[in-house]
Each structure stands twice: as C-alpha cells, then as structure tokens.
Amino acid sequence: MLPLQPAQGQFSPEVREPGLHVWRVEKMKAVPLEASEVGAFFNGDSYLVLDNRGESGADVHMWIGEKSSRDEQVAGAMLATQLDNFLGGEPIQHRHVQGYEAPEFMVLFPRGVSYKEGGVESGFRRAPGAGPVHRLYQIKGKRNIRAKEVELSWASFNKGDCFILDLGETILSWIGSKANIFEKQMVREIASLIRDTDRHGKARIVDINEGEETPEMLKVLGPMTELGESTPEEDTKADRSNSAHLYKVSDATGSMTMTKVSEKCPLDRDLLVRDDCFILDNGANGKIFVWKGSGANAEEKREALKMADNFIQQMNYDRMKTQVEILPHRSILLQRNNKTQQTTNMKLVVLAFSISYAKRLSYSQVLILMLPILSYFNGNDEL
C-alpha cells in the first residue's frame, strides 16, 4: 500500500497562471508532463489536468485509467484536493474515467486523446536503445474522438472506424470505408499526436484507405482477413429511467450522513443551505454534482469526492461510468458576464435536457421545473 498522505509542496506558483497543466500520479506525487506528452494517457495510471483560465475561472480534472490501481485513484483524489486548496478552493473539480470523459474535458485536447496500454506500476518505460514497439489504435467517436490501443491484429479492424498503426519510423493512418466524417477528420490529428508524444516528432505519417493496404502494413499484420462492418459508437447514451434528486451531506453528528431533501422537481433553491454540502444526483444519466456551501466545515469540503464515491456505491451506480463534478460556493459561480457563469448555466441546461430525454418530457417543460435551481446559481444572495 502507498502512504496515506501525498508529499507537501506538490504544485509550483506557475499553476496560478492561465494555461493547461497536466500531471501523472506517480507514488503519491504529481509529476508534470512535458508539452509533447499531453493528450496521451496510459490506462494503468491516473492524471490531474488543470485548465486555468485566469479571471474566467479554473477547472481541476482527475482522470482515471481503466486499469489504474485503487491506491493511485486515492492519491489522485488527494492531490486534486491539494491543488484545489492551493488555488484557494475556487476551481470546479471533475472526475472522469477512461472512455467516459465529459465534453468539457475532451475539448481541452483539440487533437484528440490516445489511450495506451501500461502505466507507472507496470513499468512501461522501455530500456534505452530498445527497438520500436508496434502499436495499433482504434479511432472512434462522433463528438468525442478517442484513440484506444487494441490488439495488433486484423481481427481488431472493421470497416466503420479508422485505425492508426504505429511502426516507429512510420505511422500508418488507415481509413475504413464506412468510417464517419468526424473520425476521418481526426485520424490525421491523432496520428500527429502519437508522432509527437511517442516518436519525438520524427516519424513519417502515411494515409491509407481501406483496400489500399501497403506491403509494410501487410508485413506486420499478415494477410488481410475479412473485416466486420462496424462496432457500436462509444459515445454514451443517457439512461432513460430516472430524474435528478437532491441530497444534503453533513457531519454535524460526528459521522458523515446523507439526507434526501427532494426527490422530484421542482428543486427549490431554499433547500440549499450554506452550512452544508449537497449532492445533485443524476447518476442514472451518468453524472453526480457535489455543491460545497460556503459555511460547510473544512472536513466536509475536503471529503467532497469521497462523499460522491460513497454515494455512487450506495446507489449501485457504475463507478467507472459515473462522472463527478464538485462545485464551489456560488461566490465563484455568480461573477457576472464571465465564462465561468456561462459554463455553469450551460451545464445545468444540459442536465435539464438529459432529464427531459429520460422522462420523455419536452425540454421546455423540464427547464421550467428546474428554474429554481437555475435562479439560485444566478442570484440567490441569501446563501
């Protein structure tokens, strides 16, 4: 087991300046990535991503690989809290799991993201002078394009996706005959990302359409076999069975307790109390919001992510598919005419849309039901 506390002084004053900062969690430490490494994630690791927009606000994203150890996940959560505290408790915190990232995370990487096999604990680093490792990536998605490392075999291919074959000095981008336009547009960008992160910008990129396979490709993969038509799109769809519920979380009794304060819309803004933390449960649609009241004690604020994890477990949601967003008190969210305010409004509108989809109500009907909570985030001066 790793030590229970991360080393102090993990973050330098530079993180207070606007920009994108990315760290990999290594043995309870946040190790910054080089610019050329940003956008590539090992599935056995956890990462922190800070999107600092200066006066417009900041977001701290915790990214968890599908094979990341529980120790690394705990360390990542503690480091995210430490970074949040270092920045005055003002950023919005998010937790994402590989393959289920929110759009606000994906947009930080305009060249797309790639998932690689391995991680710190598995010793993925190669010995100096070792020959190139051949890798095959599947490019998939519509709104959120991802590149995932798959088995180096024709069996991994299909006509409906794009693939990247990394051979070291040459990177082949293969376009399936039925790939969607978004994948076709992004395959070259992701090939460039892999070239820059893995090959120090020195590899040659070759574009190949299905049916035009080169001898170099056939030498590695063998004779081409019959390809499947396609695989289902990975973009997740909302569960259609539930609505949003509001819970109060408090340790006033000495132990953490959760009390449901509303189980149906409309959500009254008076339900939000400044001395406590609250969970807005939309887990059936893959999202949990944690709101930290300005008067909540330090323990409640520090344990916000743990609260969400416990809640997800208690509700029997799939932890690997449930996104978590931790919102600070409205003093951060109510700055007028800035990007943070607009982003917060948009997230609540998206939540309303997902509920309308779940309940088969019209979007306008659900938005009216959610007006109290929208108005809270936009001007309740009493909390």
TrEMBL record:
Keyword Repeat assigned: yes
GO cellular component, one term: actin cytoskeleton
SMART domains: GEL
Signal peptide coordinates: none
Entry keyword set: Actin capping, Actin-binding, Repeat
InterPro entries found in the cross-reference section: ADF-H/Gelsolin-like_dom_sf (IPR029006), Gelsolin-like_dom (IPR007123), Villin/Gelsolin (IPR007122)
UniProt domain Gelsolin-like: residue ranges: 34-106, 144-218, 265-316
Pfam families: Gelsolin (PF00626)
Record carries keyword Repeat: yes
Family: Belongs to the villin/gelsolin family.
Protein name: Capping protein (actin filament), gelsolin-like b
Organism: Gadus morhua (Atlantic cod)
